[in-house]
Amino acid sequence: MKYEGIVYRPPSEAYSLIVQVTIGCAHNTCSFCNMYKDKKFRIRTLKEIDEDLLDARNQYGHVKRIFLADGDSLVLSMDSLKHILLKIKELFPECERVAAYATPKDILRKTKEELKELKSLGLGILYMGIESGSDTILREINKGVISSEIVKAGQKVKDSSIKLSVTFISGIGGKDKWKENALESARIINLINPDYVGLLTLMVEPNTKMNEQVKNGKFKLLNPEEVILETRELVKNIKVDNCIFRSNHASNYFSLGGTFPQDKEKLIGAIDDLLRGKYGYKPENLRRL
Ligand code: SF4
């Protein structure tokens, strides 16, 4: 297997075979993200991808899951995606699920029928980084997409029966927009009704525009208590069915998890216990991305 640079994958793909079908992220300009700053975006050739798959087949006995990296694999054409999924079926008949990151714009470029076709060929789950439901915040972080496009893309994935996992970032609106971040994020979660919601907490990375904004005072970071108050507001306003909620990423100050709607009050209770001081926050030096 040939890997170029640092390869990222969602925590739930920790045991998956990772295959890079693109290098980097086609967008690569979000103000808080430095994941692919060292990579110039390109789509790998089908020959390179086939060679990696063959190589992996020769190395690994049983491959249950495959994750297509890097940042937005759904940017590939339908022909390329179909070729890769068919090759996976041929070489890894035991593979139960193929997964990928997808940006809202990648998803919108595919029709519902095309997504259904990808599902029938083994694409089982898409991970979409939403970050915030607020159009103001999305514009400020240069996400390159507005909330109505995110909602349309999310609903399209759900309609195709591909599982949808979305992530939001607490604190991404800073002190000025924490409430807007919570309320607008809950609003679009309710419109999409994703299968999974993951909540990360903002960590400011060096070499990012956001780092400059923090240094020059234009962006004010939330403290741990403000983060939990924002999370409380988010949880309180989520009204969805059958949606697994997790806030247990290495970046979070505290771990939370449950299924909506049945665990909503339990989640709020755990947050209130935290606010009353029953539990402590994760120390800053133990937080990771
Ligand atoms: S957050 Fe996602 S879309 Fe934005 S630059 Fe990073 S990888 Fe690309």
Automatic annotation (TrEMBL):
PROSITE patterns in alphabetical order: PROKAR_LIPOPROTEIN, RADICAL_SAM
UniProt cross-references to Gene3D superfamilies, sorted A to Z: Aldolase class I
Entries under SMART domains matching the protein: Elp3
Extent of the signal sequence: none
Domain of life assignment: Bacteria
InterPro entries: Aldolase_TIM (IPR013785), BchE-like (IPR051198), Elp3/MiaA/NifB-like_rSAM (IPR006638), rSAM (IPR007197), rSAM_sf (IPR058240)
Pfam families given in the database record: Radical_SAM
Needed co-factor(s): [4Fe-4S] cluster
This protein's record includes keyword GTP-binding: no
Keyword Translocase: no
GO terms for MF: catalytic activity; iron-sulfur cluster binding; metal ion binding
Domain (Radical SAM core) ranges: 9-246
Keywords: Iron, Iron-sulfur, Metal-binding, S-adenosyl-L-methionine
The protein's name in its UniProt record: Radical SAM domain protein
Organism: Clostridium pasteurianum DSM 525 = ATCC 6013
